[in-house]
Amino acid sequence: MGTDMAVERGLRRGVSELVIVLALIAIIIPIVMVLQGWLSSRAGSLEGINVIQPLSGYVISRTYTDGREVITIGLRNQGQTSYEVKGFKAVLVNGSVRDVEWSSSTAGTVLEPGSERVFVITVSSGSTRVKSIVVTASEIATGKRVETSINL
After folding, report:
1. The whole model's pTM is what?
2. DSSP per-residue letters across 58-76
């Protein structure tokens, strides 16, 4: 009878729960510190990246007569490659999107790096005014489509 109790006591003895918790904490803390250091270094490298919108636009003039708006905008290529202007869409104040008539006041629709073009856009908007113009262009070298919005 004495040996059975001694064996039971020996089986119950083992690693304390407190020791297990402390060992896990000792393992987890260095892992978290290494992970935090790695994430901080990645975030630091992302701060150095400047994303420049290749095309930017500005409003030169805007007139509204009998349900038609005529908007003259300038479009500037701030990128490193050439872009061809493919078209425009008008977003009205009520959220609807309209096709527009447009023409370039200068010859051609290709914007070389650093160049600007002026476009005249006519929108049949009815009684609702135009909120913004969405410009669609494509990069000439790759055919990649680019859109930019000009708020009015």
Report:
1. 0.64
2. EEEEEEEETTEEEEEEEEE
